[in-house]
Amino acid sequence: MIRVRLPQVPEGFLGRVAPLPARLCPTVEDCLASGTLLLEGAGVGSARLDAECLLAHVLGWPRWRLVADQRRRLSQEEFGRYLSLLQRREWREPLAYLVGQREFWSLDFAVSPGVLIPRPETETLVEAALAVLGEAHPQPPVIVDLCTGTGAIAIALAREIPGATVIATDISRRAIRIARGNAETHGVADRVTFLRGDLWRALNGHVAADGAGLVVSNPPYVPSGALSTLMPEVQWEPRRALDGGADGLRFHREIIAGAPRVLRAGGVLLLEIGGDQGGAVSSLLEAGGGFEAPRILRDLAGRDRVVAAQRRTNSKMKN
Ligand SMILES: C[S@@+](CC[C@H](N)C(=O)[O-])C[C@H]1O[C@@H](n2cnc3c(N)ncnc32)[C@H](O)[C@@H]1O
């Protein structure tokens, strides 16, 4: 296949050139065909879908309208914006950063470079949390979400459990800003408090000792040495959101050590894990002495994805 590289379209360039006659501007159909070819050439697996999403984004249309209006010609300005997005996608920048959003739990979340894009497998953690909270709890639960990113887990839980109060933390200023905006968009800003800081230290008295019924976290868990082997798209995401230290478990250790202080007796800790980390994280929980025997839950692809552990009623904490 001949690989076509698009020329870079400088900022403001399109405003300075004489407008193309309308009949020379490409149609929706042409744009999709050539965009798909270009992205295929760049190794993008979902080339057609991505070309459609980018064009629909530029035109402000729902995707289905691309079929209904395939003969519509783009304006020169629309074509320029499409070319520039296609080029960024050709460089394997994630689609979600280009269109500024990603669906999670059937809700649209704003995302931006510098903030991790929520993954579908993390919905396993939300399902597990709902199952835990579906079991009787005495009063509206207090939930802590450490490493909240876009706020995806915290906001999905606040939407699903109307009485819940959620405290969500992240070390990234940008993530906290995006997450607050997402909570506003989804109408839960009055019940989700976002705090910036390092893991447990961010809570800084916002949750009483033994005050939470549930602690959830999808912390960074990729072993540092494996980061460079991840897909090109993942290389655009913040390293700080992915890097779990030498064995990938740096954050799990710290979360497990601090959880018994915040969880009430009988409360549950849910941690997202990489597919091969279930055994190691279960051992950390067992060694801590504060938890009943942990359970490992699988995602829809059948991979180990979440470890769940209930805080013992009479826990002997080890320091
Ligand atoms: C894997 S992402 C998870 C984001 C989100 N919970 C999700 O599931 O989409 C990990 C997050 O941890 C945050 N983070 C990294 N180091 C942290 C730390 N020391 N304290 C708190 N958050 C941290 C990153 O900024 C990132 O947003």
What this model shows, in words?
With 319 residues, this protein is α/β, with parallel strands linked by helices. The chain has two domains: 13-91, Helicase, Ruva Protein, domain 3 (Orthogonal Bundle), CATH 1.10.8; 110-310, Vaccinia Virus protein VP39 (Rossmann fold, 3-Layer(aba) Sandwich). Helices cover 35% and strands 16% of the residues. The protein is built from eleven helices and nine strands. The protein has helices at 13-16, 28-41, 47-59, 65-68, 76-90, 95-99, 123-134, 152-160, 173-185, 250-262, 278-288, and strands spanning 101-104, 107-110, 142-146, 165-170, 192-196, 212-217, 263-272, 295-298, 304-310. Strands 5-4-3-6-7-9-8 form a seven-stranded mixed β-sheet, sandwiched between helices. A two-stranded antiparallel sheet has the order 1-2. Strand 4, helix 9 and strand 5 form a beta-alpha-beta unit. Helix 2 crosses helix 3 (47-59), helix 2 packs parallel to helix 5 and helix 10 (250-262) runs parallel beside helix 11. The radius of gyration is 23 Å and the shape is elongated. The model is unreliable at 1-7 and 13-17 (pLDDT under 50). Bound molecules: S-adenosylmethionine (SAM). The site of S-adenosylmethionine has 21 residues, from helix 8 and strand 4.
